[in-house]
Amino acid sequence: MTIDVPADACDAHCHIFGPTSLFPYAPDRTFTPPEAPLADLQKLHHLLGFHRAVLVQSAAHGADHASLVAALEEGAGRYRGVALIRPDTSAAEVARLHDAGVRGARLHFTPHLGPAPTPGAIEAITDLVRPYGWHIALHVAGNGLAEHEDFIRSLPLPVVIDHMGRVDLRQGLDSPAVTVLRRLLDTGRVWVKLSGADRLATVPPDMSDSAALARLLAWSAPERVVWGTDFPPPQHPRLRPRRR
């Protein structure tokens, strides 16, 4: 199989896990993924023809960004990072991460990854990263976009929505969540990642419903969509190994 990608194409959403002998998982993690170190990701990128990527810090590693920083250093300018910033993260740590190549902070609004951040926590995080011009990466699911539309509009930074908002495709492409997503793209301040199609699909294995949503978003706002492999798929119930 031959895949032709544009010059300087970028995998805008991928993760690395471990190796845990060097980069252990966070003790308070809510899931334990199989190891998928940078070398494995680079093999995939070589196969697909990618040289640039955005590495997203996983909740499995928590606020310890050692593996992310090491990968950014190895990328020698070809990679950028998205971090997990907490309200008590120091300004010095944010500066260090920025120097390493981090350009975004991810907020989780998905129950399987723990409690959602409070308004006070969100304000503290945005205050920490705003001086560096970072974006906010939002991880929501179900009707989360519809529930949080006003909050998303109020954020003082550019917003990137992960995995097509993880909308419930059983509700169709005219659902409140999809309608809000398209409306947010029209603001000019919000982007969406065409990634995680397997997380949304209700008709596997062809994922035709996820593909239809991706086509709709690309048609609606082609200048506001980015694409990512979501390598590796850590939470897919049909792909992850059984926990011991």
UniProtKB/TrEMBL annotation:
Top-level taxon of the source organism: Bacteria
InterPro entries according to UniProt: Amidohydro-rel, Aro_Compnd_Degr_Hydrolases, Metal_Hydrolase
Domain Amidohydrolase-related: start-end pairs: 10-237
Gene3D superfamilies according to UniProt: Metal-dependent hydrolases
Protein name: Amidohydrolase family protein
